[in-house]
Write a structure and sequence with these properties.
Blueprint (H helix, E strand, L loop, with lengths): L1 H4 L67 E6 L19 H4 L4 E7 L4 E6 L2 E8 L2 E6 L13 H13 L12 E8 L2 E6 L27 H7 L13 E7 L3 E6 L18 E6 L3 H10 L4 E2 L7 H6 L3 E17 L10 H9 L3 H9 L4 E2 L23 H10 L6 E7 L3 H15 L3 E7 L2 H9 L5 E6 L9 H4 L13 H12 L3 H18 L2 E14 L2 E2 L2 E3 L2 E3 L4 E2 L2
């Protein structure tokens, strides 16, 4: 845990939003009962738990190491296709190609890649203020055009947000639920009237929040969407530095630079530096690595752990491991039926029987960390390593088995998902449990079917994972009784109230105290436990410069090819 503690200064607060995969939509909490504190002053450091500065300029392009070069096509490889290019319809939370295609009102801009420290900076909004806890006023950038030539203005912002809330096919309605209404005050001013005070207001206006539907705040062309109708999802139009030119589903998607982009590079000319992007679908990460070695692929976020040593050893590659942005892997028990439902000591025995460090070491090639605090991370308000947590104590687990009424052990079912990143650690948990008499029959069934069984309460124990996010309030999807990513059906009215109170506060210190209480409730119930943390990674060839991230998503807006 020492390596994790060193990240305590990191501003980027990233953890789970949608468990198992980013396909789970979020669930907005009801209006919290607690009275909110006022947002922090404009001079407060930017962080997910505070409001950004009241006024900010566009993120400055960093000076590259050496003179930038223009031209060339960046080739990006990924293992799967996004289901839709309409931000309201896609179910993937990790499509980094949205970042150069679309733009949001606010960026979550990386300022220190060693620590992950990031700041809120203006993108399509030049500045903003929070006059009261229920209101956000944004001043928009003037003169911005969409790829189709239509104007970006307050009416378009109003239309985009209202579309997210009311479109009949929208899978992101709950993401925008915190906005009660939108007023176009004038052509360049938008007022957001919040349904309830929430610390998620600024994270949710960026593309960095992670998980299914997290791209809902991408601004799309009203004119293009109304013209294309249902075909818009195959013909996206944004304000970003590239525009889509061809989409061959499950094969490749191509983009070319848009000459009308508003933002300038360090050479004083409009971004991007490259001529275009080609995004290829290559199902096998090993094949991606082969192509990277050959120079036919420049960058990917699909670097498997077994590849780490050879990528690190090659002067042609650059590997970024982001420990502040891990996928969390967890196990949980059915709280309403089966042997664990009404047997706290049996659940505690299962918690103490898991050797989290051994799992992290075996799977992570030196880059994974044990997960003792389930959904919490070192930069979240309320992070405190002294809080009680379950460590590896097999003798204590055996004693608890006897006290639970199972001195000779117990047989039970255990659901996991088929991909190795889920099945392998589940098998390790299964083997560790067996040593203390917890005999789990592992059933690795198709992911959608497994989730359906979990939601229906048709399981004894289950194993899943979850994507990063900017703020612990996003965890309502995992903790709360009606949470759409609550894969163990955990339900505690006390926890619901605790999470609502934490979200309603803007002051980090006050939030920290509330969230310590939330973590203690979760620990006492012992219904969910962690195993390990798998950091997001980014691998690129050395000639591709200027690759950044927003949260954990690759950001190619300022990238360039040194060749």
């Amino acid at each position: 845990m020492q390596a994790f503690a060193k990240l305590g200064i990191v501003v980027l607060v990233l953890f789970l939003i949608a468990a198992c995969s980013p396909a789970a939509p979020t669930v907005a909490p009801p209006k919290p009962a607690a009275a909110p504190t006022a947002p922090p002053p404009a001079s407060s450091p930017a962080a997910a738990v505070t409001a950004p500065p009241a006024s900010t300029a566009a993120a400055p392009a960093p000076t590259p190491a050496g003179k930038v070069k223009r031209g060339g096509t960046v080739v990006y490889a990924r293992t799967g296709e996004t289901n839709s290019w309409d931000p309201l319809l896609h179910q993937s939370g990790d499509n980094p190609l949205e970042l150069p295609l679309y733009e949001t009102l606010i960026r979550y801009d990386e300022v220190d890649e060693k620590t992950g420290k990031s700041e809120y900076r203006g993108e399509l909004a030049e500045s903003w203020e929070t006059p009261d806890p229920n209101t956000v006023v944004l001043k928009l950038r003037k003169g911005v055009k969409f790829h189709d030539g239509s104007d970006f203005n307050a009416e378009v912002v109003k239309w985009d947000i209202e579309r997210a809330k009311t479109h009949p096919k929208s899978v992101v309605k709950v993401w925008a639920a915190f906005i009660k209404s939108v007023d176009a005050v004038d052509a360049n001013t938008v007022r957001l009237n919040l349904a309830y005070p929430t610390a998620l207001v600024y994270p949710n206006l960026t593309r960095a929040s992670g998980g299914s539907g997290s791209g809902w705040s991408m601004m799309i062309s009203k004119a293009a969407a109304e013209k294309s109708g249902d075909a818009y999802e195959r013909n996206p139009v944004g304000t970003g530095p590239v525009m889509m030119t061809q989409m061959l589903r499950d094969d490749k998607t191509t983009f070319k630079k848009w000459e009308g982009y508003w933002r300038k590079g360090v050479d004083g000319q409009p971004l991007p530096y490259y001529d275009g992007i080609t995004a290829r679908v290559i199902l096998d990460p090993a094949v991606i690595l082969v192509e990277m070695k050959a120079g036919t692929v420049h960058v990917t976020q699909n670097i498997e752990p077994y590849m780490f040593p050879q990528v690190k050893a090659s002067p042609d590659f650059r590997l970024r491991v982001m420990p502040w942005a891990p996928i969390r892997f967890v196990f949980g028990f059915n709280p309403k039926a089966g042997p664990f439902a009404d047997n706290l000591k049996l659940r505690q025995a299962a918690q103490y029987a898991v050797d989290r460090k051994a799992i992290a070491d075996a799977l992570g090639f030196g880059e994974f960390l044990p997960n003792y605090h389930v959904y919490w991370g070192p930069s979240f308000p309320g992070w405190d390593e002294s809080l009680p947590h379950y460590d590896y104590q097999p003798d204590k687990a055996k004693q608890l088995m006897k006290e639970a009424g199972y001195p000779d052990g117990i047989n039970f079912g255990f659901i996991a998902y088929p991909p190795p990143m889920y099945k392998q650690p589940a098998e390790m948990v299964q083997a560790q449990w067996a040593k203390v008499g917890l005999r789990a029959k592992l059933d690795a069934i198709e992911t959608v079917a497994a989730r359906s069984k979990q939601k229906a309460g048709d399981f004894d124990a289950a194993f899943w994972g979850g994507w990063p996010s900017l703020d612990p309030a996003h965890f309502s999807r995992m903790y709360k009784c009606d949470g759409s990513a609550n894969w163990s059906n955990y339900c505690s009215k006390e926890m619901d109230a605790c999470m609502d109170e934490g979200e309603s506060l803007y002051d980090p210190a006050k939030r920290a105290e509330v969230y310590k209480r939330c973590q203690k409730i979760f620990y006492d119930d012992a219904l969910v436990g962690g195993t390990h943390l798998r950091p997001f990674t980014l691998g690129n060839r050395s000639e591709l410069k200027g690759v950044r991230v927003q949260a954990y998503l690759m950001d190619l807006q300022e990238a360039w090819l040194d060749k």
